Amino acid sequence: MASIRFDGVTKRFKDGTVAVDDLHLDVPDGEFIILVGPSGCGKTTALRMVAGLEDVSEGSIVLGNRVVNEVEPGHRDVAMVFQNYALFPHMTVYDNMAFPLRMRGVSKPDVASGVGEAAKLLGLEELLRRRPNQLSGGQRQRVAMGRAIVRHPAAFLMDEPLSNLDAKLRTEMRAELARLHRRLGVTTLYVTHDQTEAMTLGTRVAVMRDGVMQQVGTPQELYRHPRNSFVARFIGSPPMNLMRGELVDGALEIVGAAGAVSGWPAENRSVLVGIRPEAWHAGGDGAGESVSLPAVVEVVEELGAETIVHFRHQASAVDVADANVVDAETFVARFDGNATVTVGERMELSASASALHVFDAETGEALETTPVTA
Predict the structure, then answer these.
(1) Which of helix, strand or coil describes residue 320?
(2) Which of 6, 181, 269, 278 is the S-S candidate for 334 at Cβ 3.0 to 4.6 Å?
(3) How far apart are CA 180 and CA 306, in angstroms?
(4) Angle, nearest 10°, between helix axes 93-103 and 108-122?
(5) Measured distance CA(4)–CA(11) in Å, rounded
(6) Helical H runs in 131-218?
(7) pLDDT tens across 228-256, in order?
(8) Helix (H) or strand (E) segment spanning residue 113
(9) What is the DSSP letter of 160?
(10) What does the buried/exposed string (b/e) look like for 148-168 if buried means 16 or more CB atoms within 10 Å of the residue's CB?
(11) For residue 367, is it within any domain?
(12) Of the candidates 140, 110, 12, 5, the residue with the CA atom closest to the CA atom of residue 62
């Protein structure tokens, strides 16, 4: 096994596009780390540079103790699992898994042993004589994983391996990948745009945007202490609500909401106020200082254990695409599944001061000073 380090890595394409910009990231030996972000953020390009499928424009990629910028892909001792499985359709499951060992000149008995061990680990023993077109999506993904496992690589590189599966299979495969990592302990760099995957799989999560690393931390660190408004919105499902606010003489006020929260810096400035869906309460919550907001219910999603409510409030929302203020926006609350809410109902929603996240309106950066609450 080996660690992975991005040391000031930049990828600039011939047309001048900067896909990855001065990336610094350490992946210790044995860690399972997720690169997550929207399409086009540079996460797959970063993965492909580790694999040797893309050249590095600036900086260094270090595997273990060696810089691999000029090392051919086949000599990097990494195994890549692709989104589309990349199985040979004319080969059996056994031959697909055996292929990388045969290419290395491994003896026939050792090939059989290696494939048998991986097949047992992945529950593929009864499928070894089938071809890919006779398998389900989940089975094909396990074959692709098996082909990577038999190599005993220093690191796994996974490029959205579950994105072609349906929701049920994705959930099952997430659990399977987590179990595999616990058993094998191989350093894993995993790329996805699905923040649910990121939150449930990763030891740590690295959020990217426009080629730039935004924040790296455990899933709970990113959820509870987002560094900026982009991370705050990207991590969490449903996403965080963002509203306009002002800091006035040390008090935080949300536009259109009743109540103010004291204890903030005296510097006056415009801010964005973030409230997680589960932080809303119907009526007052009675927990010290709080803010309240009149709202009208637009959509109710009853999911059994929880109820997701979309509501509308005038003149306080932020268009999170470009942070321009709009006249009205839909916000989301997460209630207990026993909550009784009807479309068109007018509600008073409240959130305690301790649940508020505050960001600078211009930069989007989180304000580190927290209010003093009773």
Answers:
(1) coil
(2) 278
(3) 31
(4) 130
(5) 17
(6) 137-149, 167-184, 195-201
(7) 999 999 999 899 999 899 998 888 888 87
(8) helix 108-122
(9) S
(10) bbbbebbbbbbbbbbeebeee
(11) no
(12) 5
CA 332-283-368 angle, to 5 degrees, is 60
Among 196, 229, 262, where does a domain finish? 229
d(CA 278, CA 305): 13
Query: What is the average pLDDT score of the chain?
Result: 88
Pairing relation of β-strands 78-81 and 155-159? Answer: parallel
| Residue 353, pLDDT above cutoff 60 | yes
Please give the pLDDT value at position 21: 98
**Among 343, 263, 272, which residue's Cα sits nearest to residue 311?**
343
54 burial (CB, 10 Å; 0-12 / 13-18 / 19+) is middle
Give me the number of domains the chain comprises: 2
d(C-alpha 282, C-alpha 339), whole Å: 10
User: Residue with structure tokens 């999560």?
Assistant: 205
Q: In this structure, what CATH number is given to the domain that contains residue 100?
A: 3.40.50.300
pTM exceeds cut of 0.85: yes
User: Is 187:155 a contact under the CB 8 Å cutoff?
Assistant: yes
Residues 251, 179 share a domain: no
The answer to the question of residue 325 being in a domain is yes
Does residue 238 have a cis bond before it (omega within 30 degrees)?
Answer: yes
Handedness of CA 228, 231, 236, 237 (dihedral sign): positive
pLDDT band at 325 (very low <50, low <70, confident <90, very high): very low
Whose tokens are 């098996």? That residue is 146
Which residues, 6 or more positions from 255, have their beta carbon under 8 angstroms from its beta carbon?
A: 243, 244, 245, 246, 315, 316
- Of the chain, the end-to-end C-alpha distance in Å amounts to 50
In three-state secondary structure terms, 213 is strand
How far apart (Å, rounded) are the C-alpha atoms in residues 59 and 53?
A: 16
Residue 333 CB contacts under 8 Å (≥ 6 apart), including other chains: 277, 278, 280, 308, 309, 311, 349
Q: Are residues 282 and 207 in the same domain?
A: no
In tens, the pLDDT along 130-164 reads: 999 999 888 998 899 899 999 889 999 999 988 88
Flag whether 365 is in a domain: no
